[in-house]
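Components:
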Amino acid sequence: MISSRLSKLASWSYLIALYGFIFLPVAVLVLFSFQDGRLPVPPFNGATLKWYGEVFSDSRLMSALTNSLMVAIGSATVACVLGFCAAYGLARFVLPASRLQRGLLIAPMTVSYLIIALGLLTTFNWLGVSLSLWTVGIGHVVINLPLCFAIIYASMGDHQKNIERAARDLGAAEWQVMTQVSAPMLMPSILAAFFLSVTFSWDEFIIAFLLSRFDVTLPVEIWSMLRSGLNPKTNAVGSVVFLVSVALLLILELIVFRRTAKK
Amino acid sequence: MATASLETRENRRAWGFVTPALLWTVAFFVIPFIVMAAMSLATRKGREIVMAWNFDNYIEFFEKAHLLKGLFVSLEITFTVTIISVILAYPLAWIIAERVPQKWQRMALIMAILPFWTSYVVRSYSWLLVLAQNGVINNTLVYLGVISEPLELASTRSATVIGFVHFFVMLLTLTIYANLVQMPPNYRRAAADLGANGFQVFWHVVLPLTLPGIMVGAFLTFVLCIGDYITPQILGGNNELALPQVIMLQLGRRADFPMAATLSIILMVVVTLAYIACARWLKMERT
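Structure:
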């Protein structure tokens, strides 16, 4: 009896300790974004929204935020469309060397972002392509395409195949089957792939850092803010980024997973 | 004959679906990789890059201590992080799967990985707030009178390891939890009926069955950890450089593309070796 109570106690203490460890940095980040003072470290002097005001009136940060959103949504869209088409082609038709094709499409997932970025940088330099948000977007499609493909491909079960066959028998053209039958059926996984891609691109640093020049994305702008050391303004912008990511995830959880759970 | 022509038409259509994604991958992943591999065989003469087509850069890597050290620093950090993260995450995943009531498990899991979604750069910065000389830990300890002088916590390898472990405990909790809940409870019951005690059940039944989850998580940890520039740069400082930091140094100050490419290829070889070592647990097949 005692030993079971002891093990229960140990379990709960461990749980609380690890949650404490996991949440410590985030709690510190958010708490000191309200710091009424110049340093985001203890003691806490009192709450102010001043630093948030500074973040939202900083035109560089705001344009970086817009850039990040554009790159994230644009690259996620391209990755989803390419990934969906490829998954459709490979799951529904018998193609030669399909194992190899799948392997090729998944391959970028196993390579460090730094290496992908460096490869693209070397190639763009060699070809004389100037760096811009477009090159960042290209890089982000490279890292998100395997993800989109894998998620959508994994959800293409055989039961949907029959419905598609029925649509075809009823005279639907291939693109109609794809857009009006398959895509709506697979919507939960397509949306999951899309939102995951958006969060990954929104967060990504090294590709955005190496492949951009004048217009930069938010993580790169935050990176350059770090040079000034600890600063409550950095806390504030970090908290905003966190809030956006959590909001995206919440949307994903509510729209996508709830819907699949109901089915 | 009719079916054959139908099949070729079907095939052509199928290629139409797959080709755009394949072209994208070849154009922006395979070709850049080849260009980079070729670049690693070039040399830098002053400001110019000359195609030498030799392995001088690779020889230089093994001869120059500061380059080779980057690889060892990275490997040491990565192994330390992977082991500590698995040891911390396994009990957490187990407690969530076994002790937390069913209806709260999903919530507990979401909470456990919530900080996962703070921006990568911001997460390392947050640890700086905790570990800095005037940061939360030092401040608290001095205030409590435990220490009189602040400890040197930031800009050390420990700081890098803490930052990494924080990130990967979340990731591993997720993968191990997924494996634990998939395991049918009957297996454990059967082992207990056959006379195994708690530890034996864990060691001979639960652990082997959850090993695939651990390996998937450990492999992901390895790949993401060894290729990361941000965490060692922000938390570890410039006292000892990890391989990605050495790579970025070649790009930044010296614009030495050939050496940066060489180091990247070496990094990639290391990751590939890790993949081969874990391959039997990593099946990326459609189920």
